[in-house]
């Protein structure tokens, strides 16, 4: 006896809607798995260690603080980078992938069907988390330091504009190939690790930036190499630091101090800079070109993100997503604006 078409019990799903739904649920479970999010041992608002389970929201466990003066509710995703982002997780992951590819805000917004303003704030939330989480905390064996200079850029600013003198100076610099000296940046890296990016503040010298961010973060026995830095005060600090190292370390890197014909001390060594550090500036400029200009106040953001995706360690958009989900902290738009004041 034949089976009629109307008697078929298995319903076709040509659009794979059920599969898509299952995929999204599986992704959500993976994202909010206890191994991928940070678990609070105390209330993130008041610090009280006494809290109770307080139901679930979208399958995410919530808690309530038992401190009578607090009584606030929270979950393990409270204060995460993705707080208040009212979109599904797959959009966040896709956005990070587009960032890694150097996609513009307009293109990213069009692909993900979000506004350009939303894409802008997403980008800076991610950049802010990346800059704070991935930067090296210290240098152990050796560190290579180079300086870099860029012109001021007021892109997107409502308060800062180029003066007539700035325009003439920039035009002259481009015409004669002068090196811009507006914004000074230090790039420090240990071997092939992710570099540390430091932009000099207006209220300090480049020597201060070098001392506070490089020398003060070197561990005992760490050798410091200067890659084409012609700053006398920085070189003096480095000489004093390296002179106090063990003789075996100085011998290993061929560290020597000599005095030139006018009586100024200089250092030389046989330090071999890794390939990624040598090619860092060229690759950085090529990557930044896609963004059609970077505002000076956000230099640290973009340089740190490039350091991440250009590092020898294998990073992809999924790893970046889960890293900053678990370890990144929430920053509101106002906080990001206040952190990156236009003090240049």
What topology, given as strand order, has the largest sheet? Answer: 6-5-4-7
Order of helices and strands: HEEEHHHEHEEHEHHEEHHHHH
Number of helices: 13
Task: Kindly report the oligomeric state of this protein.
Answer: single chain
What ranges have pLDDT less than 50 throughout 5 or more consecutive residues?
A: none
Count the strands? 9
Proportion of helical residues: 25-40%
Computed structural class = alpha+beta
Tell me the Rg in angstroms: 26 Å
Shape: globular
Cα-to-Cα separation, first versus last residue: 85 Å
What is the residue-mean pLDDT, rounded to a whole number? 78
Instruction: Characterize the largest beta sheet: strand count, sense, and whether it forms a barrel.
Output: 4 strands, mixed
Beta-strand proportion: 5-15%
Describe the structure.
It is a single chain. The protein is of the alpha+beta class and 344 residues long. Among the domains are: 15-80, no CATH class; 137-302, no CATH class. It contains 13 helices and nine strands. It has helices spanning 17-31, 89-100, 105-112, 116-134, 164-176, 206-213, 232-243, 247-252, 275-278, 280-288, 299-309, 317-327, 333-339; strands spanning 51-57, 60-65, 73-75, 142-150, 183-189, 196-199, 223-226, 256-259, 265-268. It has a four-stranded mixed sheet with strand order 6-5-4-7, sandwiched between helices. Strands 1-2-3 form a three-stranded antiparallel sheet, with no helix packed on it. It has a two-stranded antiparallel sheet with strand order 8-9. A hairpin with a 2-residue loop joins strand 1 (51-57) and strand 2. The radius of gyration is 26 Å and the shape is globular. The model has no long low-confidence stretch (mean pLDDT 78).
